[in-house]
Amino acid sequence: KMDDDDDDIPQLSSHTLAALQEFYLEQQQREGMKTSQGFNQYSIGSIEEDWQLSQFWYSDETASCLANEAVVAAGKGGRIACVSAPSIYQKLKELDGKDFSVCILEYDRRFSVYGEEFIFYDYNYPLNLPENLLPHSFDIVIADPPYLSEECLQKTAETIKYLTKGKILLCTGAIMEEQAAKHLGVKICKFIPKHSRNLANEFRCYVNYASGLD
């Protein structure tokens, strides 16, 4: 009964197939651009999004806005931690600031190309961090938990509270507003972050200090 077996094979709609083909074509074009131009390893998109890891990069404009906000909030000589927020880390590195330092805590080991500033991070083990990452040693922590679940937010919040001296900039879904207030004491900002690809879920920024995002 071959027909029954065939019924179990999921079929992609023509729309989905077209979108996939467009995505792969864009990917090939980007790869081509990387080899033909002087390639900046810190530019957003230099490491491709991996949807299976729930990765969605910010638009260039949003990444710039959040990076600049972090620099101002950290202050001169400030330390900035990017937790699961690699596109903000990349933008901070593009700013090439001498007045701040930054590190990236990320599950995706492709980001280990950034050397000592890369710290492997799994939100399931929020305090499994290197010994040299001292508690309350960052002037601001920017975090973008990979999943819109209270469990993910709660565990990421443990990491954030361990790292920050006080200031927190959280990026997550609008539906997480109540949980964000509960676990981190942050409030929603007027600024609305955008991604390079449109997401189904409305995204917002949250802070616990007087920020430039309002």
From TrEMBL:
User: What InterPro entries does the entry give?
Assistant: DNA_methylase_N6_adenine_CS, Efm5/EEF1AKMT1, Mlase_EEF1AKMT1/ZCCHC4, SAM-dependent_MTases_sf
Question: Mind listing the UniProt keywords for this protein, alphabetically?
Answer: Cytoplasm, Methyltransferase, Transferase
What does the UniProt entry say about where the protein is found? Cytoplasm
Reaction catalysis annotation: L-lysyl-[protein] + 3 S-adenosyl-L-methionine = N(6),N(6),N(6)-trimethyl-L-lysyl-[protein] + 3 S-adenosyl-L-homocysteine + 3 H(+)
SUPFAM superfamilies, per the entry: S-adenosyl-L-methionine-dependent methyltransferases (SSF53335)
Q: Name one GO molecular function term.
A: protein-lysine N-methyltransferase activity
Q: What GO terms fall under cellular component here?
A: cytoplasm
**Sorted alphabetically, which Pfam families does this protein's record hold?**
N6-adenineMlase
The record's section on PROSITE patterns has: N6_MTASE
What biological process terms from GO does the record include? methylation
What PANTHER family does the record tag this protein with? EEF1A LYSINE METHYLTRANSFERASE 1
Name of protein: EFMT1 methyltransferase
Originating species: Baryphthengus martii
- Name of the encoding gene: Eef1akmt1
